[in-house]
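Justification of computing resources. Each target in the renewal requires a structure prediction run like the one illustrated here; the chain below, 170 residues long, is used simply to show the kind of job we budget for.
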Amino acid sequence: MLTEQDNSRTYKRCLHRCLFLIGVGYMAMMKMCRCGKLIDYYLKSCIECEELYSKDNRAKHSLYNRYQRDEGIQKIYNNKQWTIVKQRAEFRDNNLCILCLSNKTIKSSQAVHHIIELKEDISKAFDLNNLICLCESCHQSVHNKYKRSDKLKEETQSLLLTLITKDVNI
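Resulting structure tokens:
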């Protein structure tokens, strides 16, 4: 039995399950959480992951944004248009890591990556064809390749651009 203290997420999740079990024919769109659990599409993560990551990540991002990120780039990430384009990229890529998918592995994405970095070409900030969904390990790997050499960076960028322009067969 739901009480007044239950948060709206628990209520909505329960409502979705009840409607499906009753046989109303209603089925919510689902996606994978970073831990691999299946969750409702409108949720960012499952309750366990949200509790685990929310406090730590907020503190890390706050420090990074304050001391390392360029103010012009930060304004882009705080823009409503960025949120919309980011959601479109996630929807296009089914919230899966496209690099892992090309290697026949299914992993949920945790980052939407700018293939051509914003410090190179800020005009591509909201370009859907410049965005790709990646898991955290692939995202770190891509950035490490970008730092190693210009040649490796160009090869990685061309690989990522080809991955978003074609359907990846599993």
